[in-house]
Amino acid sequence: MDSILINNLYLVWFNPDEFPFFYEENKSRWREFLVALFASFSLSVAGVYMTPPFHSETGLIIISAFLIHTVFLNMIPALLTGLIDFEIRKNGGEGDVNRMISFIRYSLSIFTLSTPISIILVQMGIEGLFGFLIIMLLTLLLTIFNISRGAVAIYNIDLNRMFRLVFSSYISSITLPIFLVLYYLSTFLGIVL
C-alpha cells in the first residue's frame, strides 16, 4: 500500500486541521480515485450482504452496484465543493476549490466502513432496506461531520456555521438530481401519454 495514501487518510480522518498544509506535497488524482473505488466496493458489498438470500446473480449485482456507487462517489465532491465554495464566496470569503475537492474525495473513504457495519447489523438481526438505510445514514453523518471539520481548516470559518453549510449542501446535492429525474420522467410521460 502507498504510504502517501495512508498518510492522507490519516490526516483526513484523525487530523483534518492539518490537511490543507500537506495538500501540495500529497495531491494525487489516482489516489483519490482509488479511495472512491474502495468506498464504492464496500458500499456494494454491504448492500448485497444486507439483503439475503444470495444466488448466482449476486456477483452481477455487486458489479452493477459498484459501477453506480463509483459514478456517484466521483460526482459528489464536485457538487459539494461548488455549493460550499459558492456560499463562502457569496459571503465575502476566499475560496480554495482544489483543496476542498481533494479533502472531500479522501473523506469519502468513510464509506469503506459500510461493509463492517453491515456485518455487525446482520449479526444483530437488522437486515434489508432498513439496515442499509441505517448504514447510509451513519456514513453520511460521519462524512458530513468530517467534511465540516476539514472545511473549517480550509476556509477559516467556525464549525457550527460550516456544519450547517455542508449539511445543506449535501442534502441539496442529493435531492437536486432526484428532482431533475422526476421532472424529466414526468415530462416524458406527459408527452407519451
Computed structural class = mainly alpha
Biggest pleated-sheet summary: none
Strand and helix order: HHHHHHHH
- Quaternary assembly: single chain
Number of helices: 8
**Strand composition percent:** under 5%
Give the low-confidence spans. none
Helix content: over 70%
Number of β-strand runs: 0
**Tertiary shape:** globular
CA-CA gap between termini: 55 Å
Whole-number radius of gyration?
A: 18 Å
What is the overall pLDDT average? 85
For the record, the count of structural domains works out to: 1
Structure description:
- Helix 5 (97-107) packs antiparallel against helix 7.
- It contains 8 helices and no strands.
- The chain is mainly alpha-helical and 193 residues long.
- Helix content is 81%, strand content 0%.
- The protein is globular and about 50 Å long.
- The chain has one domain.
- The mean pLDDT is 85.
Question: Can you summarize this structure?
Answer:
This protein has 193 residues and is an all-alpha fold.
Keywords:
mainly alpha, 0% strand, globular, 193 residues, 8 helices
Give the SSE map.
Elements: H1 3-14, H2 19-26, H3 29-49, H4 58-90, H5 97-107, H6 114-123, H7 128-155, H8 159-192
